[in-house]
Design a protein that fits this description.
There is one protein chain. This protein is mostly helical. It has one domain: Orthogonal Bundle (Rna Polymerase Sigma Factor, Chain: A), CATH 1.10.1740. The protein has nine helices and no strands. Helix 4 crosses helix 5.
Length: 198
């Protein structure tokens, strides 16, 4: 997963980090501009709502800004940001799932799950050529996966992270990533099969 800075000719990530830590507010804005679209796509795939994705991405960037002094450069800045964004999204999903389960049991599941899926007409900047119907089916199936399996599908098959990056982002061994991804793909295939036959 390479940094766009290399191809754009812009300042290196570490330079922008140093400038931010030195009090240059425009430097962090440049980092946000550099990574927001890729991070938005991942967060959107994890939470299924454009509005939630925007809010959560903003939260993730705030957390990153507040903790930027702790970035040691052991991984790429993008991987570090990605981990913050993914953890923020997964935390939100767990809270929403718990709240939804409580509400559903109280209201006997009326309108259950309706708000969990993304509006299929909402623009997805990373996949402009994907047909709207297929997009809706995939997003629906992704929404049915638990957090762990959804995360590996998003990171590998949508964001094209390698296994080392995934292990770092999810804070699990590489072997766990591989087995989790294998299981997640089987689960997703099973969920998509009846939908695609309709």
């Amino acid at each position: 997963m390479s940094s766009p800075a290399a191809s754009s000719g812009g300042p290196a990530d570490q330079e922008l980090v140093n400038r931010t830590l030195g009090g240059d507010g425009t430097a962090f804005a440049a980092l946000v501009q550099r990574y927001q679209d890729r991070l938005y796509n991942a967060v959107f795939r994890l939470v299924g709502s454009p509005e939630d994705a925007r809010d959560l991405l903003q939260d993730a960037f705030i957390k990153a800004y507040e903790n930027l002094g702790g970035f040691r450069g052991g991984s790429s800045l993008y991987t570090w940001l990605f981990r913050i964004a993914v953890n923020t999204a997964l935390s939100h999903r767990r809270k929403r799932k718990w709240a939804h389960a409580s509400l559903a049991s109280a209201a006997e599941g009326e309108q259950g799950g309706e708000a969990a899926w993304a509006d299929p007409s909402a623009p997805d900047p990373a996949d402009p050529v994907m047909a709207a119907e297929t997009e809706a089916l995939v997003q629906h199936a992704l929404g049915d996966l638990d957090e762990e399996h959804r995360a590996v599908i998003v990171l590998r098959d949508i964001q094209h992270c390698d296994y080392r990056e995934m292990a770092e982002i999810l804070d699990v061994p590489t072997g766990t990533v591989k087995s989790r991804l294998h299981r997640a793909r089987l689960m997703l295939r099973e969920k998509l099969r009846p939908l695609l036959k309709q």
